[in-house]
Specification:
With 128 residues, this protein is mainly alpha-helical. The protein contains six helices and no strands.
Length: 128
């Protein structure tokens, strides 16, 4: 645990009182990614402490608390939250990743359709 920084963003001190360049690059200054927001929410829901979460996402406890507070203000259904998280996650992807992603989605749909037809065939032929 001694190799993990206590606080990173904004040049705060680590366990030895300084912030190394490696720790600063891991700190991810600025906007928190959708992935990190989701990780923070999951860890919070699992009962992890603020300090533990902040160490795992390399953010200060103050920043982690803000993310938790913002998420808890939303009285939305879990489906709406999942859709919002998905939109935010997709919004963080580079433009050149969109075409391969859409291709994968289409392949997944085709796979589901083929599986459904196969299951129907097997049921009709009494093989299942």
């Amino acid at each position: 645990m001694a190799d993990r920084p206590e606080h990173l963003p904004g040049g705060e001190s680590s366990s030895n009182g300084t912030v190394s360049n490696d720790e600063q690059s891991l700190a991810g200054r600025g906007r928190i990614s959708a992935e990190d927001r989701i990780r923070i929410a999951r860890m919070h829901q699992q009962g992890e402490s603020l300090e533990s979460i902040s160490q795992q996402v390399y953010r200060s406890p103050r920043v982690v608390q803000k993310v938790i507070d913002v998420r808890s203000e939303r009285p939305e259904s879990s489906l709406t939250v999942k859709v919002d998280e998905l939109i935010e996650l997709l919004g963080d992807l580079p433009e050149e990743a969109m075409e391969p992603l859409l291709s994968l989605v289409k392949l997944r749909r085709q796979e589901k359709d083929i599986r459904a037809r196969l299951l129907q065939f097997l049921k009709e032929s009494n093989r299942l």
